[in-house]
Amino acid sequence: MNRDEFDAYCKSLTATSSVVQWGNSSVWKVGGKIFAICSHWGPVDRDCISFKCADHSYQVLCELPGVVPAPYLARAKWVQVQTDETLSDDDVKSYIADAHAIIAAKLTKKQQRDLGLSTA
C-alpha cells in the first residue's frame, strides 16, 4: 500500500483528521489521538505504515518478517510494516480499521457521540 492509498483509506474512516508532521509523516487521528502513521521512520528507505494494535495482534505481527515494533511507539503496542510482501493491502486496512476502533474507544462517551462514533 503506497502513501496515497494509505491516506485515502484513513480518510474514509469515521471522524478522522490528518496532519503532515515529523519529517513529512502522514499522521492520522480520530478525536485528536493518533491511530496510524505513514513515514520514513526506521532503517528502511521507503514509506512504512505504523498503527496501534491490540496486545495479541502486536505479539503476532511482530513475529512476521517485515513487521517490527514501531520506532518510538512500540511501548504503546504499535507496529511498523516495512514491506509489502508480508501483509496484503486488505490485511493492512483491516489492522488500520482496528487501530481506529481502539483509539476511538478510548475517547470520552461525549467525544464519541459528538464525532458520530457512537449513538448511545
TrEMBL record:
**Keyword field:** DNA-binding
Please name one Pfam family that this protein belongs to: YjbR
Q: Does the keyword DNA-binding apply?
A: yes
Q: Name one GO molecular function term.
A: DNA binding
InterPro entries from the entry?
Answer: YjbR, YjbR-like_sf, YjbR/MT2646/Rv2570-like
Q: Does the keyword DNA-binding apply?
A: yes
Its recorded name reads MmcQ/YjbR family DNA-binding protein
